Amino acid sequence: MKKKPTRMQQPEIDRRTFLSTLGWLGVGLSGAVGVLGNLMYLKPAVDYGPPTRIRVGRPDEYTVGIKETRENERVVVVREKEGFAAISVTCTHLGCTVRATEGGFECPCHGSQFDNDGFVTGGPAPSPLAWYQVSIAPNGELEVDKNVKIPAGTYLRV
């Protein structure tokens, strides 16, 4: 006689146990989300941005009449007979980076033009380029502070 293969029966979960387990999983998941949220709160989500004080080299590295563009800092360091100056290369129209030319500055985006002192000579720019304070750091290097705007034509005499 052949035996019929017997099926193993899995225990059935009643409705009450299933719903209770599902409820406890929800409580555990919400508790885990709460703990994770509190841990993330401890670390501030602050972007301090780039530094506003930048070192641009020693004064003796610059020759008179030079305009050195610092692309990453978006500033031009100018050395004239009068001294040193730092002029922003951010166009006052829409924030494009202007190029230094022999006659001043020009914006490649919308055609704004500025003279050597950053004053608008043409185009849609509403105001002149900003001048930043230049000082000598304790180690003897030139330091540009982009938080301090100064009047155009103000040079650091060295």
Task: Walk me through this protein's architecture.
With 158 residues, the chain is of the alpha+beta class. The chain has 2 domains: 15-46; 53-150, 3-layer Sandwich (Rieske Iron-sulfur Protein). Helices cover 18% and strands 30% of the residues. The strands form 2 sheets. A 6-stranded antiparallel beta sheet has the order 1-10-9-4-3-2, with no helix packed on it. It is elongated, with a radius of gyration of 33 Å.
Summarize the structure.
This protein is an alpha+beta fold.
What's the topology here?
Blueprint: H1 15-42, E1 53-57, E2 66-70, E3 75-80, E4 83-88, E5 99-101, E6 104-106, E7 113-114, E8 120-122, E9 131-136, E10 142-150
Antiparallel strand pairs: 1-10, 2-3, 3-4, 4-9, 5-6, 6-7, 7-8, 9-10
Kindly list the characteristics that best describe this protein.
10 strands, 2 domains, alpha+beta, 158 residues, Rieske Iron-sulfur Protein, 6-stranded antiparallel beta sheet, 4-stranded antiparallel beta sheet
Beta-strand percent range: 25-35%
Whole-number tally of structural domains: 2
Instruction: Report the C-alpha radius of gyration, rounded.
Output: 33 Å
Helix content percent band: 10-25%
The CATH architecture classification of the largest domain is 3-layer Sandwich
Characterize the overall form: elongated
CATH superfamily of the largest domain: Rieske [2Fe-2S] iron-sulphur domain
Q: Which structural class best describes the helix and strand composition?
A: alpha+beta
Give the uncertain stretches in residue-range form.
none
Question: What would CATH call the class of the largest domain?
Answer: Mainly Beta
